[in-house]
Amino acid sequence: MQFNKAVLTDEVQDFISSNLKSDISKLLLKGIDFEGISVQEIVEQIEAKKRSEKKLPTWFNAENIYFPNKLNIEQTSSEATANYKANLVSGKSLIDLTGGFGIDAFYFSKHFEKITHCEINAELSKIVKHNYQQLKADNIDCLNENGIDALKRIDKQFNWIYIDPSRRDDAKQKVFLLSDCTPNIKTFQGLFLKYAENVMVKTSPLLDLKATLTDLNHVKEIHIVALNNEVKELLWILKRNYEGETLVKTVNLQKETNQSFDFNIDEEPECKAEYSLPLAYLYEPNVSVLKAGAFNVISTELNIPKLHQHSHLYTSDSLVEFPGRRFKIEKQIPFNKKAFSKEKISKANVTTRNFPLSVGDIRKKLKIKDGGNIYLFYTTNIKDEKIILVCSKI
């Protein structure tokens, strides 16, 4: 990756924008004749910009933005999750030790007087600095430096440190354990808390919460951030000298309304869920709640019973607000081919919870096409009976 300013000429920028839907292979065969720019550089800009349209609309819609390679676009935060993070913090100064393409730092800059963006890759640092100028983000300093080294060299207090350790090893293979990431958060957490009272660490959504809590000290909050019901990142908020309970905050960011549910991590093992046969309504938790393992506490807090210890579906007689999908139970039928065939359902949305067959197996066995307004939940009730709940979405 090289920052080639020739890409920023009006002629080249117009070509990139007008070819976002073009067949890349045909462009390569045809050849692109711009002085001082290779075909590969043009193609890289087209592909990266195309990938940014929904994930990074501010960058996509701004003029003269220079895009890094596809891998950087894939690894960067989306604007939706960056905005969520930025709303958790504020103050005079924040240092982003692993700046990357700079999406997070850009959103942090709206809540701080001064942001320091550290990026060890010289070309990427130049690209980010150029883009911030285009976006008029004037309160961000870009340092082409290892973040740990910069922190020690600057040797001053920040209100916040933000770090998103690299989850690629030397062979560019994906890793997710804290000890395998770069830098190693376990090793440097003491240094971070020396230079900032508050530290935010972004990690892979694959990490186990309880296991990671044994690796990190002074964890005040864990944020489980999902976007359109897909967990994107875990955020660990460390506070200097904090020894209290850890609050788990689940959020599912959606177009219209965000779903949230909070609880103290020590509450879950202490809570005892109520159980019931299916009532009038059915509730399916969103993925951030499931990742949090809030299976009993959500039953207790919202006063809604579960269908079974391992089903993670909930039910009630009166409709309640819930961090997930809500359904009206139209009918309950036993799981057997004869009973199902009487319903004459040929098209439905199928979900399984605590059930021996996969969705694919069920569709094949019962000849159900995907889609429509009928929702079928294949699950197990408190009597250990295999049942089908025929539902309509609320």
From TrEMBL:
All residue ranges annotated as the PG-1098 ferredoxin-like domain in the record: 281-323
Gene Ontology molecular function: methyltransferase activity
Keywords: Methyltransferase, Transferase
A matching Pfam family: Thump_like
GO biological process, any: methylation
Domain of life: Bacteria
Gene3D superfamilies documented for this protein: Methyltransferase PG1098, N-terminal domain, Vaccinia Virus protein VP39
Keyword Transferase attributed: yes
Coiled coil (residue ranges): none
Domain spans labelled THUMP-like: 324-393
CDD domains in the cross-refs: AdoMet_MTases
The protein's name: RsmD family RNA methyltransferase
Top-level taxonomy: Bacteria, Pseudomonadati, Bacteroidota, Flavobacteriia, Flavobacteriales
